[in-house]
Structure formats: C-alpha cells, structure tokens
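Sample entry (194 residues):
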Amino acid sequence: MNPLVQLIEAALFASPRPVTVEELQMLDPDVSLSEVRQALDQLREHYDFDGHGVEVGEVAGGFQILSRPAFAAAIERAQLNTKPSRLSGAMLETLATISYRQPVGRAEIEEIRGVNAAGVLRTLQERGLIEVVGRSEAMGRPLLYGTTPLFLELLGLPDLANLPRSDELSIALKPPKPEMIEDQDTAAFVEAES
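Predicted structure, serialized as tokens:
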C-alpha cells in the first residue's frame, strides 16, 4: 500500500464523519484530486480483495470507513454501536415530506400532514436533520426547509438522488394541491416530481 493510501486510511479512520475528497487533498498539498480519488479506489480494492469486515463507503457527499452491512445485526445484538435516538411518527412523516419535496415551507408540510408542524420542525432542526435553506418569494417570505448531510449520513446515502422513488415506496406521498404552491421555484419542483 502506498503512503498516500495509508494517509487516507488513517484520516478516514480518525474522522467521526464522512470526509470529502477536497478535505482529503488537504492532507498533502502536493497531490491532486485525481490522485486522492485513485488512492480511495485502491483502499476500496484492498478492503474488498482481502475480505475485510469494513469497507470505504460514500456517504453524504464524503467517504467513511464503515462496517459491512452483513455484520450489522451481530454488531447491533452485541450493542457495540451507538444507537441514534428514535424519531416519533410525526418526526418521520415530516422528515419524509421534507426529503422528497425540499425546499419546502411549513405551510405545505402542514397541508400534507394535516397538523401543526412547528414543534416537530424545531426538534428536527435541533437534532441536525433539517435546516433552513432559504425563503419563499410568497407573502411573508416564509422559511424553506431542506435536509442536512447528517440526514444522508444516518441513511447511509451518498446524496438525495439515492432516495427510493416515491413509486417504490409502499406508502404513496400525496402530491400537494396546486393552490398551495407558494412560488414559481416550488411550482417547478412539484412539476419535476410528477
């Protein structure tokens, strides 16, 4: 294994979160982004070829050393991993709505769920799963919400394009009514979804 691959392995092992290619490049100013990507591929091949219990996963826009999914049940049974705090049904519904319709305002979330979402939105923000990503152009310029990299990290997804399509889900998401569209950007998003 060459020194760059060893350096990247050490950095991924030491980091508690996914590390981007750009951050890995900062480990050695003399290497290019393509050399970092080649080193990541070599590290992946090393773990795959030698049958290690860990792998290099692409998560939330970065890379992280993860235990292989085949060992997840045994690790959980032995309670060796940190369990993330559970989310209530209301939080899961709101998080699903935001993940598929972002950027989305509170009024649209409340229209879909049929209940006030202020408390749930605050809790999801405090847990770092959603964030304010902008403001709508509608009257009062309400806040728009989107998911965070932590959301992708907890789901083990590289990006939002890897979310299951709504037609693949057993519970279909109901599209918003046209009169609830707050601005043209949201309208374009709804049209792209349908």
